[in-house]
Amino acid sequence: MTTTLTLPSPAKLNLFLHIVGRRPDGYHELETLFQFLDYGDDITLTLTSERPGIRLESPIPGVSDDDNLIVKAARALARKTPDELPGVSISINKRLPMGGGLGGGSSNAATTLLGLNYLWKLGLGLDELADIGLTLGADVPVFVHGHAAFGEGVGEKLTPAFPPEDWFLILKPACNINTGKIFSAQGLTRDTPKMTIAPAFEGDASRYRNDCEDVVNKLYPEVKQSMEWLTQFGPARLTGTGACIFGRFPTESAARIIWESKPSGITGFVAKGVNISPLHQKLTELE
């Protein structure tokens, strides 16, 4: 019987992000293209004899356990069964920056859901796990399903997609973005015309954009400066509401050459875009 499991919790990019409307409840209607990166956090789940017991061994500074999506995901999954479950100790090797637009918290929640579904032998399907994930955050379902996707609604309506698996240079400017501040900004574009799915993957990708970029660049000069620097080497784009920006390259070596010349004070990494999540690749190996 498996009692401990270490799983990847990958980053995602929004290859584009269009805001196509606003719902009566205040949420924004989006169209976006999600792709995973072969880079992220690692989460280790270890069953314990504590009943009940969900213990986070590596708390995130400034985030209480009750607000941590890892703990919330584990508790939400435990509520799905009347059976008495083993306790679990959870530790995380954190690589992804918080507030970067890379989906780190949502990815952590999805990895916890899939990992504990396996360890606790609950047998829940991906749709059931994604429904639980949606109660935790709009980006959690794409990580649960584990396939690059065209996202609609608040990002939860997913259609599998197959964008090119290129290399990316991701930069994290020295600032943290307040997502609520971006989505409430008066200057935010909220009326980009909707597209059908097929045109989203045809023709010149530069036609697409991130509708949050103008507002973020105006409010956060660190992002604007990084964007201007990276744009020297090709199109640069914000992911989510930022603060991370990315440039696409055909090879790893091309991305690393630019990485070596980045300005001081900016962190980041080079990673490959992948259409099947590393989390799902790992779980497939366990079958």
Tell me what the structure shows.
- This protein starts with a strand and ends with a helix.
- The chain is α+β, with helices and mostly antiparallel strands.
- The protein has two domains: 4-161, Ribosomal Protein S5, domain 2 (2-Layer Sandwich); 167-274, 2-Layer Sandwich (Alpha-Beta Plaits), CATH 3.30.70.
- The model has no long low-confidence stretch (mean pLDDT 91).
- Helix 6 crosses helix 7.
- Strands 1, 2, 3, 4, 5, 6, 7, 8, 9 and 10 form a ten-stranded mixed beta sheet that branches.
- It has helices spanning 69-78, 104-119, 126-134, 140-145, 179-183, 213-219, 221-231, 252-260, 278-286, and strands at 4-22, 28-48, 54-56, 87-93, 149-153, 157-160, 167-172, 236-238, 245-249, 267-274.
SS class: alpha+beta
The CATH topology label of the largest domain is Ribosomal Protein S5, domain 2
**Helix/strand order:** EEEHEHHHEEEHHHEEHEH
| Sheet with most strands | 10 strands, mixed
Q: What share of the residues lie within helices?
A: 25-40%
How is this structure best summarized?
This protein is 29% helix and 28% strand.
Break the fold down into its secondary structure elements and pairings.
Elements: E1 4-22, E2 28-48, E3 54-56, H1 69-78, E4 87-93, H2 104-119, H3 126-134, H4 140-145, E5 149-153, E6 157-160, E7 167-172, H5 179-183, H6 213-219, H7 221-231, E8 236-238, E9 245-249, H8 252-260, E10 267-274, H9 278-286
Helix pairs in contact: 1-2, 2-3, 6-7
